[in-house]
Amino acid sequence: MSLKDQLIIDRLPQHVAIIMDGNGRWAKKRGNSRVFGHKHGVTAVREVTEASAELGIKYLTLYAFSTENWNRPKLEVDALMALLVTTISSETETLMKNNVRLNTIGCKESLPSSVRNKLDTCIAETSVNSGMTLTLALSYSSRWEIVEAIKEITKDVKDSVLNSEDITAETVSNYLSTSSIPDPELMIRTSGEYRISNFLLWQLAYSELYFSDILWPDFRKEDYYAALIDYQGRERRFGKTGEQINVK
Ligand code: IPE
Ligand code: IPE
Ligand code: MG
Question: Given a cut of 80, is residue 114 above it in pLDDT?
Fold first, then answer.
């Protein structure tokens, strides 16, 4: 039986988040520049996007560029931004074909206008799609996002739009850039690194974490199915006991 056939379709996560890591090491292993790895990472992006859409997963969030990534050498940052521009253009067709709408989270203002313009065009074009929402985290970090939310909450309290007594965890979720998206049930990180790197700290509170040793440019549909099968074998207890969860 193929890995895909082993999936229990009605127990798939609604939202999968992925830290796409290992492009640089993949390229180095081949004696190439880090940018070569980023270019090959696009194939893996297409694979997981298509696989998610085919399976009927509603939300896929990909960590593409972190706030901290601005600290990389200028040559690499510039190449990544240029790659974003070409990829968004070339992949719009794939998004349309798979009924996927594009969304972004992160500090959009810090991105070059060439990237912002392409994003806006692709977001507008794919907004008619009704299938999966693909969110790219660009110039994103979770602490940045939480600070932004705190600023907004404080402002609304000051303006009497919000009563500080009424603030709940749900209020905080509603002020984050992911307010319209459910929390991920599954977070995947590739390349054998075991850390969160400032990604969706609030939203991952109860996510199942899956770490793969595969470097991102090598990640394929089969590897994704393997992660989903692993997820389906987990018992999500949310603080309860296993016995409570298994009561029929
Ligand atoms: C992930 O791959 C892509 C980005 C962070 C933009 P890396 O570039 O971090 O690759 P490694 O971790 O150095 O191998
Ligand atoms: C995290 O990867 C950011 C993205 C995948 C975009 P990094 O490779 O930048 O993470 P650290 O800094 O090694 O933790
Ligand atoms: Mg890395």
Answer: yes
